[in-house]
Amino acid sequence: MKPTLVILAAGMGSRYGGLKQLDEVGPNGEAIIDYSLYDAIRAGFGKVIFVIRADFAAEFKARFEPNLKGRIETGYVYQSLDKIPEGSNVNPEREKPWGTSHATMMAEPVVHEPMAVINADDFYGNKAYKVMADFLTSSSDDNEYSMVGYNVANTLSEFGTVSRGVCNTDKDGNLTTVVERTKIKQDEDGIYYYEEDERFKLEEETPVSMNFWGLKPNVFKYLNEGFKEFLENQGKELKSEYFIPLLINNNIIKGTIRTKVLQCNSPWFGVTYREDKPFVQQRIKELIESGEYPEKLWE
User: For 258, which DSSP code?
Assistant: First the structure.
């Protein structure tokens, strides 16, 4: 059975200032998603599920369907604020859904096979899709998950703080903890994450999650259980988010899953801020010139 790729593309990109999922970064109008799809297809993924907002579904489908027809099966699910467990007590003034774990939950009706979950606005590189596809097709343990790890120094932005899942691993390369740090930046004397008025140093080689996860179908059981608990504790908050690293970390602690950190030499880059776009365009140009991608991706 071929694995499925779940692309989380429902966010508006508040720091970016617009719908960055469709922003053109390639020489012929390609978005980062186009390169993710191209890499997933050649790595052997059989289906892609887009998690989007219903109000831009028509625009989204018109943008990607013509290039994907005949290449990979597609599906769409919609993340919204009202998709919560019955009886949940949440703040009525909340305006945004609950982040990446909540977004992944939307795929439950249409995904019944091992899956990779990625962000729409991150460029992960061809090798990352290959190592993930190999893992998903070879791992027979339902409770063995994975993630592609990147050095934190290679994932920063010059234009502001970034959010990363900071990882610790054991001698076998399995995660022991992954904690979402929402304010990481390069200072003059090193890399730090910030909490309130304090800062904490991170070594350049510290592995971080860029939200490239390898999950099994039973993840939906863990997601639903965890979300109910999350809303009981933080449902009244206006901006709290149910991140995938929180789900993974809680289940590692419970002993219900193991998560292998997959290493690869792929480049990572993304568009957290609009000022990141020229850098991304230049990196893609270099990859085209090196032969990694054709200039016209879908010809």
Answer: E
Count CA within 13 A, CB hemisphere, residue 230.
21
User: What element of type H or E holds 48?
Assistant: strand 47-52
Q: Which positions ≥6 away from 273 have C-beta within 8 Å?
A: 15, 16, 157, 159, 160
**Which residue type occupies 240?**
S
The residues, ordered by sequence, that sit 6+ positions from 20 with a Cβ below 8 Å of its Cβ are 13, 121, 271
At residue 264, φ and ψ (nearest 5 deg) are -155, 165
> Residue 135 is which amino acid?
F
Within 113-238, strands assigned E span 115-119, 122-123, 144-151, 162-169, 175-187, 190-195, 198-202, 207-215
Burial of 220 (0-12, 13-18, 19+ CB in 10 A): middle
Domains and CATH numbers, the chain: 4-150+208-289 (3.90.550.10)
CA dihedral 51, 219, 165, 176 (to 10 degrees): -170
**Contact 184/165 with Cβ under 8 angstroms?**
no
Q: What is the pTM of this model?
A: 0.90
**Residue partners of 163: CB distance under 8 A and separation at least 6:** 180, 181, 182, 183, 184
CA–centroid distance for 266 within its chain: 16
- Phi first, then psi, for residue 212 (nearest 5°) are -115, 95
Q: What residues are paired with 78 via a beta bridge?
A: 52
End-to-end Cα distance, the chain? 27
The two three-digit tokens of residue 224, written as one number: 């639903």
pLDDT in tens, 110-132: 999 999 999 998 999 999 999 99
Q: For 155-167, what is each residue's pLDDT tens digit?
A: 888 888 998 889 9
In whole angstroms, what separates CA 120 from the centre of its chain? 7
Q: Dig out the tokens for 73 from the structure.
A: 């099966």
